[in-house]
Amino acid sequence: MAKLTLIRGGRVIDPSQNLDEMVDLWLEGNRVLGTEPIPGAVPDRTIDATGLIVCPGLIDVHVHLREPGNEEDETIATGADAALAGGWTTIVSMPNTRPPIDTPAAVEFVILQAKRAGKAIVLPSACVSKNRAGEELAELGKLYEAGAVAFTDDGAPISHAGLMRRALEYSRMFDVPIFQHCQVNELTAGAVMNEGDVSLRLGLIGMPPVAEEIMVARDIMLAELTGGHVHIQHLSTARSVELVREGKARGVRVSAEACPHHISLTDENLAKFDSNFKMNPPLRTARDVEAVIQGIVDGTIDLIATDHAPHSPEKKNRELDQAPFGILGLETMLPIVRQTLIEPALMTWPEVIAKLTIEPAKLIRVEQYKGHLKPGAEASVTLIDPDRAWTIDVADFRSKSINTPYQGWSVQGRAVATIVCGEVRYLLDPHRETMMA
Amino acid sequence: MTATTSFNHRHLLALEQLTRDEIHYILDQADIYAAHANAGRLKHSVLNGTLVAQLFFENSTRTRSSFGLAARRLGADTLDFSPSSSSISKGESFIDTAQNLVAMGAKVLVVRHSVPGTPQLLTQYTDASVVNAGDGAHEHPTQALLDLMTIRQRKGRIEGLTVALVGDILHSRVARSNIWALRKLGARVILCGPPTLVSDRWTTLGCEVRHHLDAILPEVDVVNVLRIQFERQRSALFPSVAEYFELYGMTQRRIEMGRDDLLLLAPGPINRGVELTPEVADGPNSAILDQVTNGLAVRMAVLGLVQGHAAAPLEF
Hints:
The structure holds two protein chains of two kinds. Chain A has helices spanning 76-86, 104-117, 140-146, 161-170, 197-202, 210-226, 238-249, 260-264, 286-298, 313-316, 333-342, 349-354, 358-363; strands spanning 4-14, 19-28, 31-34, 45-48, 53-56, 58-63, 88-93, 121-124, 151-152, 178-180, 193-194, 206-207, 230-232, 254-258, 303-304, 381-391, 410-420, 423-427, 433-435. By secondary structure, chain A is of the alpha/beta class. In chain A, helix 4 crosses helix 6 (210-226). The two termini of chain A are 16 Å apart. Chain B is an alpha/beta fold. Chain B has two domains: 15-139 and 294-306, Aspartate/ornithine carbamoyltransferase (Rossmann fold), CATH 3.40.50.1370; 141-292, Rossmann fold (3-Layer(aba) Sandwich), CATH 3.40.50.1370. Chain B contains eleven helices and nine strands. In chain B, the strands form two sheets. Chain B has a five-stranded parallel beta sheet with strand order 7-6-5-8-9, with helices on one face. Chain B has a four-stranded parallel beta sheet with strand order 2-1-3-4, with helices on both faces. In chain B, helix 6 (173-184) links the parallel strand 5 and strand 6. In chain B, helix 2 (62-73) packs across helix 11, helix 5 (141-155) crosses helix 6 (173-184) and helix 5 packs across helix 11. Chain B is globular, with a radius of gyration of 19 Å. The A-B interface holds A 189-190, 196-197, 200-205, 272-274, 314, 317-322 and B 16, 93-95, 113-118, 120-121, 135-139, 173, 176, 199, 201-202, 204-205, 234-235.
């Protein structure tokens, strides 16, 4: 008989069913039983969730795990472990590895490595184009059969409008979204940050916001033309938010994600030339930050994803031009989102949790069994101490890399237990767990 | 101009970070060294026994020799590091290189690099004083200081003057350092070049942006002719050198359009026939060689000050 787990005394939040109550949650094996009392039942394990939020396991649809090819930066095991510490139970890996994930064998490799690691669940995305070269469609049907939940050439945009059109058309038959990194390369040559007053002052080459916005506009139009689903990754500018808002109003199948760094930092942070503030899309202006936050609040932006992008110190701690783009995100999302959205009372915990659970689940079409706590759902659950004060310190990171802009920040809010398919795979407070003899 | 504030920084990274009084103080110090030199006192002892290492990750002739000579005039030992003869070609990082030089005893690192912010980055990795000798398109503090010293010498003041910076503003660290210093010291600054090299955004730094050189010449006291940075041009930002010269080249005709006492500066190395004609470069309005002379005094002042030493006072 499958083991019974009781998560007792927490505030259970499941936005998919508008649930926000102080109730007990029962898990049986790898499935959710529900929140109804079970007369006479004796749990094999009890987790004391007093003072904690109990919510569906968080889902991050934008994670770079660097394996295969750059295991010095991260591996599937270390990345999936970092995910657990951040409260994520499922992460979607990006295919810009070496070699890129553009064959069924490569998709299966990622899934297998994640299973071996036994940390967070990894659902791979696969390339739109063969070898991520942006020229010919990869075998999307075979990739889908192998387990890919999204198609993307992330790290690079699909520049060729004709290829993007075909990808949006062809992927319709599998009902799989195309994740797009929106960037017109001709406008960003040599750039390391946002183009604006700050780049001018620092003498650094900038990417104008329109380099993102032109492609957001184009791809919304192509989605409209084809009926395909385009998902705008790491949306970062005010005008991009407007474009998505307009597209949705017209009924276009467009969705969008925003990253914690794009709502908590601005290009002014580059003034010290620290490469831990260098990512792509770059940190924008305060006005953009405000607009992206507004987009999250009003639902234009469907969900929050991290774009976790590990780089080893020897690569990242360099001259700003030569350091690669990207920062860590998995282990710092919760406190940053708390500080940016919840502390100023722009959103409630249930509203934020929707963007970390049911919304990403819908995006990758797994909402039948993930992203909620309805009876029968996958027993993946995150316990959050919403007010836990802590200091972000790379020495405690489970990621293999340390490239965070948040080092030393005093923050509040932290995952204290992460349960994946009924197994407690991360537990910050061991005293909360009681096993029956 | 009689500022007495001292200079309490261990590094000289950017003029953006300095106050008006600190800039005047450095210029006053440079004036003292220049006066010593005029009186035949070339050698000083303020850096006796101190090792000054020069790390030039980008080509330079005059800045490098000027810093080297300035260090030796102050009594320092110098160590010259150039990438062509170094481990950089073997893949050593610039941080490792700098740390090695500090391990040999360098107390001051004079750094030139093609990437903005690199000198500032180095301050996190060593205890040595770092002097920025030009970082990409960011800043070139000693160049701007020597420009200001030259202007002050010739005009007696900075405040209230109108100074035009002409040419490749976008890629120019000299322009950025000049803008900060000139604005702090109360000059009016006009930036002049094609819109691809001087966008309206530059007005955020307190400058005026103009695109027609002929139109501004009658109103300026000083023209600083910036070099076209062919090495930093990413894509064609103007159609041809010939067209550039036609629009922005400093010719005798243009000198005559300006005031009689128009002061002409150029940071060098100059591209004769691109930014200015030989007759203008060598003519009476030009202070190009004074700039080089003053550069030595400015660098002596800076190297002394980052180590906490002021110039010996003049004896009368």
